[in-house]
Structures are given as C-alpha cells and as structure tokens.
Amino acid sequence: MAGYVDLHCHWLPLVDDGARTISEGLEMLRSLGTLGFARVIATPHMRPGLFDNEANALRTAFATATAAVEAHRAERELPAVELACEHYFDDVVVGRIFRGEALPFPGGRAILLEFYEVDFPLSVDHRLADLRRHGLLPVIAHPERYAVVARDPSILERLLDVGAAALLDTAALVGKYGRGPRRTAERLLDAGLYHGACSDAHRPADVAEVGEGMRVIAQRYGTEEVDFLFREGPTELVAGRLPG
Ligand SMILES: [Fe+2]
Description:
single chain; alpha/beta; six-stranded parallel sheet; three-stranded parallel sheet
C-alpha cells in the first residue's frame, strides 16, 4: 500500500446516507485499500434534523462494524479503520464540540467540519479561531462544493488564515458534483489551498471515481502532489499540524 490516509469516508453502515450494509462498507474498504489507502477514518454525518447521530451511539455502531472488518481481514487485505465524524457547523454541534461531546479525529487534535451549502455562518472566521484556541485544528470538508467559495475563493483563504485546513473531495475533479464544483476544485488546487484530499465515499461505486480523481491529480500536478494530498497532508492534519 502507498500509505494513504482517508480522512473522510462514509463506510460505516446504517448511520447516515453512506453504506447501507456491512457488505457495502467492506467493499468500500477493500477498494480504497486497492487504491493505496492504509488507513480509513469513518466520518458519519452529525447533522441535527437530518442525521441525528451522537458520539456514543456512533462508537457502538463502529465497534460492531469493526468486529466484522477484523473477521474479514484474514481473507482480504483491508485498511486500518478508525472513527471520527463529519460535524455540521450549527449551534447544536458547535456546543457539543466545546463540551467534548463530538468526535474529533483520532488523537483529538483536529476535527472535520461541514457547512451549510450556500453560505458560511456569520463570524465563521472568529468561530474557527475559537476552535483553534480550544486546541482543535478545524478541517473544512469539500470547500469546492460551497456556493460562497465558488463565488469568491478568497473567502476560503480568510478561513485558512485563521488556521483552518481545507480537504478536497477528490471525485469533484471528475465532475461528480457538476461543473461548478469541478472548476472550483481546479482553481483551489492551482492556488495550492488544499491541505489534503479524501474519498467522501458513500457507496462502493464512489471509490472508482476517487481513483479517477487521483489519476487526474497525478497527470496535472504530478505524483508528488498525490503523495502530499493523500499521505503527507492527512497524516499531519490528524496530528493537529498544518502541512506544507
Ligand atoms: Fe461526507
């Protein structure tokens, strides 16, 4: 394996809009392993009203699924699995983060955040700076998908200036979310604004698009960029450090 680390994946079954069975979850892990991922972190949605997941219930679901992963490990090569969460940045979830009721990345130094699709909340830069002071590195999921970033990428730069990190959803590069996010992803890559890339896979078929996206990165930016986005960057982020 190439030692890649997937910081954002919905392989944990039956907790959100990700894998629907443990077989689907195992299939996603096997395919990610084939692409070179040695470590895949499950990041189910925590989004009140849509995915009412809380940390303890997710820990229980993860323990059950991990038993199945370990049972299958002997018959086929599978990446190591860990648990975190994709935290929707609303007042309920932010409250949980500050009370220690969230699921940061393993080690508790960085945390995956997603935002309302259309706009960032008021004073988002100050709120991310608060998280930094709280000892957590905020990792912004799929910035290329937010309309506000597409309109003006400098808004993302402002968030990176307060110490947040940006994580590319690789399949955006092959048009999974349409032309807009694809173009924005290319602009952000050209500007060197990403600290890492992930699969954000919800189904086994999504992993093939991740592979295509990795090939696009290799062709346009070289294999060193692939190594940075999928190994070095994510490894640093989990350790709570901004890479590069
Ligand atoms: Fe996601």
